Amino acid sequence: MKIAIIGYGKMxxxxxxxxxERGHEVPLKITSKNTADFNTENLKQVDVAIEFSNxxxxxxxxxxxxxxxxxxxxxxxxxxxSFEEVKNKVDNTNGSLLYxxxxxxxxxxxxxxxxILAQMMNKLPDYKVAIEEIHHTQKLDAPxxxxxxxxxxxxxxxxxxxxxxxxxxxxxxxxxxxxKREENVPGTHQxxxxxxxxxxxxxxxxxxxxxxxxxxxxxxxxxxxxxxIFTMNDVLFN
Length: 238
Description:
Mean pLDDT: 95
Number of strands: 11
Largest sheet: 6 strands, parallel
């Protein structure tokens, strides 16, 4: 398979390494220095694009790939306010898009564990739940897309919570997400249920970018020759 990498920073380089190890080619790598190469002609020469840029560029990058009929895996977060616009674009172009708040296979297993735990805790109101996420200082969005997905998994299964806030909160129906930014932290997410008697914690700690990169390449392999909108749930659990 021929893969384009849109956003050839640290993550893009890790994706390239994994892709080559799995027998793929990476003929197109887009950075801020070669944006002229990010055109329809070049996109038509690849089988799938993997996008890891930044929230401000994501929507334009998605549209370019869809216009070129190039399936796209998008790992960038912070663009979801435009999701309906993107969905309509996929429908109108008969395109293919897989989006993920986190491509890591381990994190997507963590998402499932989080939902099951929330279901179990729904009948135990003495436990108060909160989320903490820690990322490197270069991460632009807060809370992380992963933390938002975790929050949604809790809210959907815990009747006491009907929304989240990105700060500490003692309001019963608000789910608190505390975001921290520290040097050289690929990503840590922890969910804590606290009661006067004890605490229950589940935690995912990324040791490097490799897990994100592997998941992105696996997603690209999955989406190749498919039409529609997909998530990592489709890749791993369907």
